[in-house]
Amino acid sequence: MTEKYARLVQAAAWAATLTATFLLFMKLFTWWYTGSVSLLASLVDSLIDLLASVTNLVVVRYALQPADEEHKFGHGKAESLAALAQSAFIVGSACFLLLNGVERLFKPTELHHPEAGVLISGIATIITAVLVLFQKWVVRKTGSQAIAADSLHYQSDLLMNIAIIVALGLAWYGFPVADAIFAIGIGIFILVSAFKMAYDAVQSLLDRQLPIDDQEKIYTLASTVPGVEGVHDLRTRQAGATRFIQLHLELDDNLKLVDAHRIADVVEDRLEIAYPGADILIHQDPVSIVGKSPREQI
Length: 298
Fold this sequence. Notes:
Structural class: mainly alpha
Protein name: Cation-efflux pump FieF
GO cellular component, one term: plasma membrane
CATH topology of the largest domain: Alpha-lytic protease prodomain-like
CATH superfamily of the largest domain: Cation efflux protein transmembrane domain
Strand content: 5-15%
Domain Cation efflux protein cytoplasmic: 213-286
Number of domains: 2
Number of strands: 3
CATH architecture of the largest domain: Up-down Bundle
Order of helices and strands: HHHHHHHEEHE
Helix content: 55-70%
Oligomer: single chain
Distance between the termini: 41 Å
Pfam family, one: ZT_dimer
Domain Cation efflux protein transmembrane: 14-206
């Protein structure tokens, strides 16, 4: 795990927490001022975002700790646990929004000062867009699952703010039911996003393989090293920032042990350059026994 990774991930976590705090108080006042259920939906989502971002901040600090005696493989999976917890928070907020939207659909209430809601939602959209762009940049640089999950909240917020502007605009021009309809639509969108986030987190906890493009890249890097006659039993996974790569090299039967070790070192160096900080385990097999059962190898 590099110092750059730690710095970027912590910066993104702090940025999300501070942004969520500011948006929460801004939306709280605006909801009180306008009475919009769409703004209530956005307010509740911002509250969940703040709780999730604070959780992320704590978890990221823990996940960045190096391996210790009790956790030989590090603490990276804490990021996946954080993403799973966040998805549970989001499901709860989505259900709350759906219930409020349905209630307002059948019991519409006149909005007060919708123009204020449009203005505040516009400001929130700009602030959220800047945060999302920063988070996406951090995710591209680090691959952090915790930041990717947190970014999903704010992408939902971005769409929500745009929807609120449209809903309040329609309500302003005499279509008050639009406020409730958009609140329901936002709730459904958030619910779907939460289930997707939970699925990805569970798959990571179950040690899902790296994407097929990465597997092919690893295979190519290893198999093109001079002296390597084949590669098999490639196994990969990721926990937090750390990728784990295990593979078997097929080498000439008559190679000296020191030469086999040198070839494996070259493969490891290539993989380390392509995947900095990766935990790499390489086993050398004589090519003549590949594919044979243990009994046949005797």
